[in-house]
Amino acid sequence: MTDILTSTASDICNDAASIAGVIDPSEELGTTELTKCVRAANLLLKSWQTQGHLWKLSDVTVTLTPGTESYSVGPGGAGTLSRVRPLRLVHCVRRTNSIDIEVPIISRQEYRDLPNKSNQGSPINVYYDPQLTNGVLYVWYTGDTSNDTIICTFEDPLDLLDNNTDTPDIPDEWIEPFTYNLAVRICGIYNAPVPQAVAAIAVESLNRMMNFDSDIASIKFMPERYK
Asked: Other C-beta atoms within 10 Å of 127: how many?
């Protein structure tokens, strides 16, 4: 027995096509149809990566160079920043002598409004611009001789399905919503009506997993001060 569900791109596409009713459960998609369905699966993955997922968060340690305002993040980056281009920066801390202090993430406008961008000192703000092929991480202040480092929690993109034997870049508990939502997309490819039951499962399973795939944390309420 195993607790891992392994499904390839071909498996999922054939299951989705069967669920959509465009092929018989005993059949499999032809080569051309399978290629179209894999493309639809990749488009779905690209859409889903904008929703944010805990399993695609990565912590990256950046050693700051005093006076350096920005750092390239992606295939053209240096050191730890030579990696996949992150979609977003979701959290950042400054680490000095093993002590972590949160560094606020600011907007593009807020960063542009800052004074001298090359001022040295312990960083108090960061801004991330994802751009197209390489993102840019801006740090202010730019660090000093204390060799400050910052630890950035980036949200990374989902890997695409390059081959029919690839497994999707999702945990196995996401296979059901992925398959049923792909079935809805496949109905569009075949210009077929979406079965009502399939649409309902697609929505319900996706909502269930989105609620599950969220950080568990306490909610704090602060009373207002009386004037």
From this structure: 22
